[in-house]
Amino acid sequence: MTKLSPLQIERLKYQPKLPSSLQNGVNSLEMVEGSATESVRDREQIKALFANTYGKPTVTFKSSSSVSTSEVRNVGVILSGGQAPGGHNVIAGLYDALKSANSANKLYGFLGGPSGIIDGKYVEFTDEFIDAYRNTGGFDIIGSGRTKLETEEQFQKSLAVCKKLNISAVVIIGGDDSNTNAALLAEWFVKNNTGIQVIGCPKTIDGDLKNEQIEISFGFDTATKTYAELIGNIQRDANSAKKYWHFIKIMGRSASHVALEAALQTQPNITLISEEVQEKKMSLASIIDYMTDIIVKRSDMGKNFGIAVIPEGLIEFIPEMGSMISNLNDIMASLESDPNFVNATTIREKFDIVENRLDTENAKVYNSLPALIKGQLLADRDPHGNVQVSKIETEKLLIEMISTRLDELKDQGEYIGKFSAQSHFFGYEGRCAFPSNFDADYCYSLGYNAFALINFGLTGYLSSVRNLTQPADQWIAGGVPLTMMMNMEKRHGEMKPVIQKALVRLDGPVFKQLQDNRDDWAMNDRYLFPGAIQYFGPSSVCDITTITLQLERSKELASV
Ligand code: FBP
Q1: How confident is the model at residue 384, as a pLDDT?
Q2: H/E/C letters for each residue in 421-472?
Q3: What is the dihedral of CA 452, 456, 457, 459, to 10 degrees?
Q4: The pLDDT value given to residue 178
Q5: Of 153, 297, 421, 464, which residue is least crowded by CB atoms under 10 Å?
Q6: If you ran DSSP here, which 8-state letter would residue 390 be given?
Q7: Of all atoms in ligand 1, which is nearest to the CA of residue 83?
Q8: Distance from residue 81's CA to the centre of ligand 1 (Å)
Q9: Which residue, among 321, 308, 230, 242, has the nearest Cα to 281 in the 3D structure?
Q10: Is 426 a residue whose pLDDT tops 90?
Q11: What is the spatial distance between Cα 514 and Cα 297, in angstroms, rounded to a whole number?
């Protein structure tokens, strides 16, 4: 028998909470329709591409005193993209809802992400199987992957697999790109009269799949708490040894929500926010000046130590870098099949091929970077055409450039301190942590609610659970049409329909909290030490969600 840790044993027993509307099961529900919806941008193009699923209303569920019977359904579920704490609970919630609606229902899990449905690789879930994964982190129950579902051939293969298993609905648990896949598949299934429904669930630690209907994606709560614990520990170490500057890059491929939330929980000396860098058109040189200035001033106060938090996606938001990377993405798409590039034997040859193809200004920017970063920028794109920022060591780039700047200042007699830096990257540490109580409850509710959407015959919807800063029984369950969140963006050099990413709003209350405090935090050590995620104890400690969600919700409620 597999040996379990004491915490594993305790967490398996945790019973996640549900919104009161879902507590009597999906057979005692009433669906309330909102008004018809439009996509966030590019309405005509999105409408034309999603002729069958566009414009549907949002829906919410209310518990009903009448009990309906539910026809037998087989459902397939896919975990897609990067891991996020709570994914197993989405599947557990879906399974429990499906079995409580009709014990003859079956849930299949497709293995290894979207490729599982294409290749027909699956498992059938049983009580025993699901029970071993309740309230655990990770996606290892069936694995995940980043295959992009978009071609006719992939859709045909998926249909054949669904027909073989008599599956009438597919649930895709994923972020913006994966739910774009869900929208495409939903549209194709309707267009081809297959009768198969598709429902998405909002996953990503990055926290950038959100809008008025989706308050937060799952995993953000646990991941930010995990990073905040680690940053707090490093702050204690820095404040004890007083000899290192710690440069901490934090995951979040594009938006800086994770870095911002972790910073609000820990109050480090420097926090960069990519969206601000872009808005203020800050060059790499001006970022170096900003950070160097704080380092010098702290040194003048006798403090040759500190903490800098850097969002993972920063490099793409620095205007000259963003332009160069976008040019580079298009070039890389065309070089994928270029034998000269593919067969180049040295990295120098690859640099030369790329530099010759880049526009003049972009070539200069590329050329100005250290070889380490130039090489990392050439790494394979993800299947959606994005540069893999987790592989670019921006924290090291900043350390190197700041060191050089400080040496210059030393030569000019303007700096006499000592700069010794440590670099860190916190990403994978948080993606598979035991879900917080919040994520355990939220995920279970999202999965349970996904089956309610299926039971009402909906397709092309994202499972939505709102009112999240209130106790779980007051959460509002429902669904949002996926097309409502879409716009057209360039991917792999072509315009494609995609779900719009929610970036940090510089006019929002969350960024303002940082802005109002950062000068104080820079010079005076206001470090907070959040410690490990709490599962037991006063609800203000163990059930409280992120500062981001609390500030955003209190602003929304104030404006009602
Ligand atoms: P998702 O958007 O798929 O949830 O993934 C987010 C993320 O964790 C990013 O924060 C990170 O840049 C990326 O995945 C890393 O991807 P990989 O797991 O392929 O290294």
Answers
A1: 66
A2: EEEEEECHHHHCCCCCHHHHHHHHHHHHHHHHHHHCCCCCEEEEEECCCCCH
A3: -50
A4: 93
A5: 153
A6: G
A7: 4
A8: 7
A9: 321
A10: yes
A11: 20
Residue 183 identity = A
pLDDT band at 112 (very low <50, low <70, confident <90, very high): very high
Instruction: Compute the distance from residue 431 Cα to the ligand 1 centre, in Å.
Output: 9
Which residues surround ligand 1 with Cβ inside 6 Å?
81-82, 84, 175, 203-206, 251-253, 312, 389-390, 431
Look at residue 493 in the predicted model and tell me its pLDDT.
74
- Cα 555 to Cα 120, 241, 543: the distances in Å are 46, 40, 21
**Looking at residues 88-95, what average pLDDT do you find?**
98
**Separation of CA 265 from chain center:** 19
Instruction: Tell me the pLDDT of the chain averaged across its residues.
Output: 94
Mutate to test the pocket of ligand 1, among 147, 205, 310 (most ligand atoms within 8 A of CB): 205
* Of residues 357, 336, 246, the one with CA closest to residue 291: 246
The catalytic site residues sit at 206
- Counting ligand 1 atoms within 8 A of each CB, the residue from 251, 310, 503 with the most, and so the one to mutate, is 251
Closest approach atom of ligand 1 to CA 176: 2
% of the chain beyond a pLDDT of 70: 99
Residue that the structure tokens 């702290």 belong to: 298
Q: Which helix (H) or strand (E) holds 122?
A: strand 122-124
Considering only residues 156 and 345, tell me which one the structure prediction assigns the higher pLDDT: 156
- Asked if residue 253 lies in contact with residue 390, where contact means CB atoms within 8 angstroms, the answer is yes
